């Protein structure tokens, strides 16, 4: 059976069905957009009740994190994410799901090595590189402002 | 006694008998096309256990007990048990067998483990010191997800080439003593496969990673035995799924071997691909085990199939090898199963 890796990769490309982007993009747009619109709606509601803008947006993040964590606990978030893809992954709700889901999953390994040790297995890289990039950004800003 | 021929095919002078078999599945398998053939379906995926790993052990235990019951023998009549699963250090098998207090061999051949255990069990039984050997394998969607992928509740999307790990297992009792059965299902020959790697790196496309090894194993067996695909009622691959099955046929076509008329795949049989949201099909050690020990062997008993090649296929990856950017090697072991008249 004489077949190079490259030839096989060609065969594989033909045999493997690609993702149906029309469906996934539509889902991401509608559900992702829905989550952001809900955030905006909540902000307006909070401000209507006399909250200043900064506090209202802080409370929006807290509310969305709470809803996402609750839906994760109720085993519903992954069903939404199946259709939403990046639409439910990119907003803050996705970050909450990435922390709550391992916490639930690894409870069987105990509170220290399970929940404590594995809670950030998915969100960890986001935190590490998010902070690293923010430091870099701060340095660049500092240099430009000093000139 | 047995003879090795050609590329490592082992032909048994005296066939090895499959005296009993049993299958266990859960809700999704019970909703699938094999539902009527599975011996025990538990809708509760925990199988009454606290952890997914223990649930998987429970599957193995149920399968072994059921197969012993069907053979009307006790655990004391088993010389040893050959068990395997997908979990690290094969804990699904260890905890499934530990209370049985019989000699134990743990195997890892990824999704090819059912065929691997049958192959090893058969060779042991060419030695007359042994009489009965139990081969059992299992997989569990939840234990596999948490080990190989993400937590269950993590909101991710699956690619169209990905496969769904079967929650289930199967047990087969092999014997070199047919006792009083007049007509039996026998293992006539086996072929231990070689590791083949054609550079696939996508862990969500294991069918493509395994197809080359299946093609090599089938081709070499046909060459060794001077047979052709039409000599068999069915060429059943382990769990290549939709993508891998298509690739297997293409690879064999290049060698002028046409299996399109009598090929099927356990990954395509265990679920309804149109209705059950499993993308490219089923996978896992339990996939070929449950399909073989439910539908296939029952149909052989009924005489629908008389001569089949069962080719267990495995993707030999680990989370470490994938994270280190390595390719995914595949392995396939072949078992030639026939229905024969036994002269007692």
Describe it.
The complex is a heterodimer of chains A (about 150) and B (about 350). Helix content of chain A is about 80%, strand content about 0%. Chain A is built from eight helices and no strands. Chain A has helices spanning about 5-15, 20-50, 55-75, 75-85, 85-90, 90-105, 110-120, 125-145. Chain B has ten helices and 14 strands. Chain B has helices at about 25-30, 50-70, 90-95, 115-125, 140-150, 205-225, 240-255, 265-270, 285-300, 320-325; strands spanning about 1-5, 10-25, 40, 80-85, 105, 130-140, 165, 170-175, 185-190, 235, 265, 280-285, 305-315, 330-340. In chain B, strands 1, 2, 3, 4, 5, 6, 8, 9, 10, 11, 13 and 14 form a twelve-stranded mixed beta sheet that branches. In chain B, strands 7-12 form a two-stranded parallel sheet. In chain B, strand 4 (about 80-85), helix 3 and strand 5 (about 105) form a beta-alpha-beta unit. In chain B, helix 6 (about 205-225) packs across helix 7 (about 240-255). The two termini of chain B are about 20 Å apart. The mean pLDDT of chain B is about 95. Classes of the chains: A mainly alpha (about 150), B alpha/beta (about 350). At the A-B interface, helix 1, helix 4 and helix 6 of A face helix 6 and helix 7 of B.
Query: Taking all residues together, what is the mean pLDDT of chain B?
Result: 94
Cα end-to-end separation of chain A? 66 Å
| Biggest pleated-sheet summary of chain A | none
Shape of chain A: extended
Helix content of chain B: 25-40%
Q: Helical stretch count of chain B? A: 10
- Say how many strands of chain A there are: 0
Count of helical stretches of chain A: 8
Q: Biggest β-sheet of chain B, characterized? A: 12 strands, mixed
Order of helices and strands of chain A: HHHHHHHH
User: How confident overall, as mean pLDDT of chain A?
Assistant: 94
Oligomer: heterodimer
Give start-end ranges of low-pLDDT stretches of chain A.
Answer: none
> Rg of chain A from C-alpha positions?
21 Å
What is the strand content of chain B? 25-35%
- The total beta strand count of chain B reads 14
Beginning-to-end CA distance, first to last residue of chain B: 19 Å
Helix/strand-derived category of chain B reads alpha/beta
Helix content of chain A: over 70%
Please state the overall shape of chain B, judged from the principal axes of the Cα atoms.
Answer: globular
Pair with the biggest interface: A-B, 37 and 34 residues
